[in-house]
Design a protein that fits this description.
With 378 residues, the chain is mainly alpha-helical. It has helices at 31-42, 46-53, 59-69, 79-91, 124-129, 132-148, 151-166, 173-203, 206-218, 227-239, 243-253, 261-272, 275-281, 296-313, 317-326, 332-341, 347-357, and strands at residues 71-72, 100-103, 110-113, 119-123. 58% of the residues lie in helices and 4% in strands.
Length: 378
């Protein structure tokens, strides 16, 4: 066990784990998340312009709200969380430890927000739900958001989501805002996969990460749950059903700021088994001082390659169809008709069958969606 220290800002892990001095967020970022962030960072003056345009955001009010109506984590309050926070910053080599607050809310949730400086907020529901190692992964997840610079975009997403609700009564006033919100949510879902990886690098306990995601999905009933069965759900979700189910999956995920919990668990386990993860654990990873030399073209090429591999390896009926078409297996119209009609009937009958067999999906979630089930560690 590593010896504890209370000197100045030094952060020391509570147990022996590998540290990653100077690690760049590129080491753990999802390819789609990474390519977007690299492109933004390469734009001269982007941060200055972005923050200027974001000047209307009530950040001071937000900070005062948490300061006045939440409990700030420190050596005197929620000391175990304070140790985890300093631990996570030590392992990922984040120089400045962000403020962290505990907010009274039975819904398990966590978030990293802020424009000038990130702040981390966790709910009492999450603190009471997770054990120490599970919570360590979540804190690492949030520190990963901070290191990646996600807090700015998350803050804007929350602001625009609330704004969209306020102007929903104005004709067409909600359309433009929701277009931006939808795009931000798509990016943020990818950033969640990145932050899950950061949480694993901090906790260095895959089973704890899996347990935490299971609890977020099914509550504090570990004796009733099984990791392998939970991951089997993700596999069934990905490959199950027909093209209509694939479309419903897309419609179900659009209002969410987070991927589905089983999908997060499967993605994290898959990454933990890659050579990329092992290289990081062996001490071979991109450094922050190399970020300025990062190639936007290479980042986008890697992202495109990742998606091509995902499509080829996907078990989802729609993705398999896309792969078949890309490989020259047939025309799009004919493939879609055959898939939806069972491959045998004429066009007229097939269209009727498809229409009769489908129904308008009901979105089970609150459209504002900042805290849908499975959103902990946002």
């Amino acid at each position: 066990m590593t010896e504890s220290s209370h000197e100045s800002h030094e952060n020391v892990p509570s147990r022996q784990r590998r540290r990653f001095p100077g690690i760049s967020s590129r080491a753990y970022e999802h390819p789609a998340d990474r390519s977007a962030l690299v492109a933004l960072r390469k734009l001269s003056g982007f941060d200055t312009v972005f923050k200027a345009l974001s000047g209307l955001l009530p950040e001071r009010s937000l900070r005062l709200l948490f300061l006045s109506d939440s409990v700030r984590v420190s050596d005197a309050q929620f000391t175990h969380l304070n140790s985890m926070l300093r631990d996570a910053c030590y392992i990922l080599d984040l120089e400045k430890v962000p403020p962290m607050y505990v907010n009274q809310d039975p819904q398990p949730n966590a978030m990293c927000i802020g424009l000038d400086e990130p702040i981390i907020v966790v709910t009492t529901g999450l603190v009471e739900l997770l054990d120490e190692e599970e919570m360590r992964a979540v804190v690492g997840h949030e520190v990963g958001h901070a290191l990646s610079g996600h807090a700015v975009y998350r803050t804007i997403l929350l602001f625009l989501t609330n704004l969209a609700l306020k102007v929903a009564w104005i004709p067409l006033g909600n359309v433009a805002i929701m277009a931006i919100v939808t795009a931000l949510r798509e990016w943020f879902r990818k950033s969640e996969l990145s932050a899950d990886r950061a949480g694993l690098l901090v906790g260095q306990d895959l089973q704890a990460s899996m347990r935490g995601l299971m609890k977020i999905a099914g509550g504090n009933h570990l004796h009733e749950m099984n990791v392998d069965a939970f991951l089997a759900q993700a596999d069934e979700y990905e490959k199950g059903g027909d093209l209509r189910d694939s479309v419903l999956k897309i419609l179900n995920v659009l209002p969410r700021s987070h991927p589905f919990t089983t999908v997060r668990a499967a993605e994290l386990k898959k990454w933990s088994e890659t050579r990329d993860y092992q290289r990081i654990m062996d001490g071979h990873y991109p450094r922050r001082d190399e970020d300025k030399d990062t190639s936007v073209t290479d980042a986008f090429r890697e992202s495109a390659s990742h998606y091509a591999d995902s499509v080829r390896g996907s078990k989802d009926p729609l993705m398999k169809l896309v792969g078949d078409i890309a490989g020259g297996a047939g025309d799009l119209g004919g493939k879609l008709r055959d898939k939806f009609t069972g491959g045998g009937g004429g066009a007229g009958t097939g269209k009727g069958d498809a229409t009769n067999g489908s129904q308008e999906p009901r979105n089970p979630e609150d459209p504002e969606g900042p805290r849908e089930p499975g959103s902990a560690g946002s």
